Amino acid sequence: MLHISPYNYDAEKFKPVQKKNIIDPLTAYDFRNLRDTVYTLKDHFVEVNLLTQYATLYSRDGSSRIIPVSTGTKKIEDGIETREGIFVLQWKAKEMHSVQFDSTLMINWMGFNSGIGFHALEGKSYYKYLGKKNVSHGCVRMARKDAELLFSLLEKGTPVFVHKGNGAIKIAFTESRDNYKYFSSNELRKSLPERYSFLYSGEYLLNINQKLLIDERNISAFGLPIGDASLIPSRQALRSIYLWISPETPEYEKIKSLLDGDNPGMLTLNLTLDANSSRRKI
What we know:
Layout: E1 36-40, E2 44-49, E3 54-59, E4 64-70, E5 85-88, E6 91-97, E7 105-113, E8 116-121, E9 140-142, H1 144-153, E10 159-163, E11 169-173, E12 181-182, H2 185-201, H3 204-207, E13 212-213, E14 237-239, H4 251-260, H5 271-274, E15 279-281
Parallel strand pairs: 1-11, 1-13, 2-10, 8-9, 12-13
Antiparallel strand pairs: 2-3, 3-4, 4-9, 5-10, 6-7, 7-8, 14-15
């Protein structure tokens, strides 16, 4: 035990050290923006918003391109709504004739959901609906220049995310430093409902640490369910060690640290605090 004589006590020497890390409960953060994530090794993926009638081409280099489209509707004869889901490109053809609709020529066809896919048409009469109204029989129509671009860039297995703005999942590109888990098609379909249930119950950050890969081998033409973001609560349970993060760290880095769970340098290194793995909701 250390004994300090009143005769040689140095107040400055034994002055308590001011700690830089303080409790940062992230109480202002709204976790309703949290999403489950699946990852792709491909260089691109496409997101189709059925409400806005726009698609977005995302590239691994960080660039993106917005493309006006026209999706399916039940309001026309034999028409169906373009279905929500996470799909991948199953096949491509420079020209495809529709057996169902009088052998209509579909240019730069890229199928992702059985008979549903991206394509252009001859003529320009349909251009006036692109980005404005869903008038197709189920496919995702686009201008010929946009369909040609996508056809040149997208390979088999490229993810396609179709939604109405309320999915509980998103797609991201893989990073070389991270580890990923590859599930079979059946395993993947069984895993997602459980992951969504943790997201809805506020226990996602406590239970989900596997980053899942998707490609043409584990996603069939039927696709994957995208969940319901309206069920995600504003608070998520966290282990108490994650509450001790430097206040100087930007919020986006804090959240990334929570999701990745691989940045111990952001913790206090206080053995008592960091060993406490009790659950706490914020």
